[in-house]
Amino acid sequence: MASNILLCDICNLRSLSNPSVHWCQDCDEALCSNCEEYHALSKSSKGHSIIPINEYQNLPSFVANIKHLCEKHSEKYQNYCQIHKCPICYKCIQEHGECGKSIFPLEDVVKYQNASQSFHTLTKNVADLEVKIGRMENDRKNNLTEVINRCKAGRKKIHDFRLKVNNHLDTIEQGLIKELQDGEFKCNQKIKEILNRLSELEQEVSNCKSTLQSMKMHASDLQVFFAMPQIKKQLSDKENELNCLHSDDFLVTLGIDTKIEAILVDVKRFGAFSIKAIPSSKEFTETESRQVNSEPFSEFGQCLYSCSVR
């Protein structure tokens, strides 16, 4: 892009610093208002194409850098070499002596390029490419929305399934705890019944002991003789009952289902997640850019060449 502030090239040669307001496309020079007026009246330059300097500044740099003067000879380009695909001045013709009929007047080659079919096609390709970019942008945005929604649905699916797993584990956990509590209650009840009866037997045996001590101190031999069999029978009955009360110990064991234990070992992932690149359902039509000839003026050159052959 040209500089935002340009000085008049003519005034600059006169060591003056006047801001430019116009640009001569034929001379590649910036002009102030006074020099532009003289430029338009001069016989040698009154037919030149002059544009406002701000329009020149708006040109892309690669366009603005295309000069109208030969960089080697500082002469205005007058011809175009079809073989070398370059503009040439009258001094360059000697270097293109072998090009012969492939050299055409530059004015004829570049005339009406803004209205040419190639320029029209190129303009259409730009518009088509803008439409294609817009469609592809919308397609990517839609895909982004779809990805976000799918991931959101995936997180909900994980959460919902986790709740189901939690609820199921809670249910079977409560079932096992209830079984454990019921077993504990039955064991406690059975053991407490035995303990209560043992306490009663202990008291009854203690009474027998007291009776024997009392008999020893106060009963007659006759009384002791006939009372001893009764006490012996009582002790025998109590011993038999004690033997009946004697039972195996209650041993409580708890085992976790192997399928649940396997979760901690075998289940390494909660699920599977993948991203696949699949062809888009949208089809984007190719522009006609491939039909545009990449060699400028080649169609015109071929036409001139065929005409010259005839």
UniProtKB/TrEMBL annotation:
Residues 3-53 form the B box-type domain. One of its GO terms (molecular function) is zinc ion binding. InterPro entries: TRIM45/56/19-like (IPR047153), Znf_B-box (IPR000315). The keyword Metal-binding applies. SUPFAM superfamilies: B-box zinc-binding domain. Residues 184-218 form a coiled coil. This is B box-type domain-containing protein. Keywords: Coiled coil, Metal-binding, Zinc, Zinc-finger. It comes from Mytilus edulis (Blue mussel).
